[in-house]
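Suppose a colleague, Dr. K., hands you the sequence of a protein chain of 71 amino acids and asks what its three-dimensional shape might be. Before reaching for any lab equipment, you can write down a predicted structure in token form. Begin with the sequence itself:
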Amino acid sequence: MYEIPSIVESPIALFLARDIRAVSGDPEDVESIVAVRLPFRDALRSAAAGELNDAVTIAALMRAAHRLRTV
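The predicted structure, expressed as tokens, is then:
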């Protein structure tokens, strides 16, 4: 998918991972990442309710929901 196709030509790859575990990371000085864990259904509800504001996250949730329904 493309984040802003009219401005940025680089595509974004989305991955659906299962049975994973959290590990510590080593973010760069300019990164500010806050991990939020919640059940998948709650994440979908939050996206649909407008509580999430990151378009890539919302697109990833919608694609994952579709993929998980059709597998």
